Amino acid sequence: MTLTIAGLQHDGVSGDVDANLAIIATAAREAVARGARILVTPEMFVTGYNIGERLAPLATADLVDRLAAIASDAGIAIVAGLPEPLPSGGLANALVMVDSDGTVLLRYRKTHLFGGLDRALFEAGDSLPEIVEIDGVRVSVLICYDVEFPETVRAAALDGADVVIVPTAQMEPYAHIAERLIPVRAWENQVHLVYVNRVGTEGELTYVGRSSIVSPEAEILDSLGSDATGLMIATIDPETTRRARQENPYLADRRPDLY
After folding, report:
1. Which of 83, 108, 119, 216 is found 20 to 30 A from 54 (Cα to Cα)?
2. In 3D, which of 105, 20, 32, 129 has the Cα closest to residue 73?
3. What share of the chain is helix, strand, coil (3-state, %, to 5)?
């Protein structure tokens, strides 16, 4: 089995949940028409990311239900970035994965908070995600800054992931992360990476775009430029993952007793 994934690179509408859900719904229909099984949004796309005190009132429990309805209506699984209210009264920078019938498959809270922006708005998650199997393909997730730590992607690879999906909101001056680090993460772990970024500006941030889907051989399967909006699409084949791990046996040749 294979799994075709679409990534939505977009600027969204800061602070406007209805507008952003409408963008997701339109993208979901286009992704289905182009043969995708999963649609991925950027980090915090449902509400906007760098919106300060406007964020908390938008972090309502019904956001997941509204995403599930979009997924069910379009017939596609969705991985979407959104704020998650916490029992503490705080918020997590989170994502939800809902299947094409609206079933919630996974919730994940960003574990590595970036700088003052994240720390002012969010509480860090305290666990990496479980693997979710979709159509025989083993899927893991991270959020933005998480992927910049080699241990997170390595943990997913050791858990048998075929693909790691990474909603992100990468901004200037960090375009080199999208351009250079993401292919390295894919290569060193023999795993597909789906890195889905925002574009445009939000407050003082200018997002760098450059979303990509990268193979375990560090081949760019599809990508978008620094300011394009739209979908990138590629098919994840577990056989490619298995072959890459035979040809480039980093995982098998590790010496964890030395580390």
Report:
1. 108
2. 32
3. 35, 30, 40
Q: Which of 30, 84, 123, 144 is catalytic?
A: 144
Sheet harboring 137-141: ordered strands across? 132-134, 137-141, 163-167, 192-196, 212-214, 220-223
Q: Dig out the tokens for 222 from the structure.
A: 């599809």
Is 110 designated active site? yes
Q: What is the pLDDT of residues 203-257, one digit of tens each?
A: 999 999 999 999 999 999 999 999 999 999 999 999 999 999 999 999 999 999 9
Token pair for residue 16? 């406007």
Q: What integer pLDDT is reported at residue 45 of this predicted model?
A: 98
CA 56 – CA 91 distance, rounded (Å):
7
| Per-residue confidence band for 172, with pLDDT thresholds at 50, 70 and 90 | very high
List, in order, residues 6 or more apart from 153 with CB less than 8 Å away: 142, 147, 164, 185, 188, 189, 191, 193
SS3 of residue 246 by DSSP: helix
Residue matched to tokens 């990509």: 212
Instruction: Indicate the pTM of the whole model.
Output: 0.97
Is 204 annotated as catalytic? Answer: no
In a 3-state reduction of DSSP, which class is residue 167?
Answer: strand
| Annotated active-site residue in 110, 123, 148, 202 | 110
User: Interior CA angle at 215 toward 213 and 218, to 5°?
Assistant: 100
Catalytic entry in 43, 123, 148, 202: 43
| Mean pLDDT of the region 25-37 | 98
C-alpha 126/C-alpha 129 separation (Å) is 10
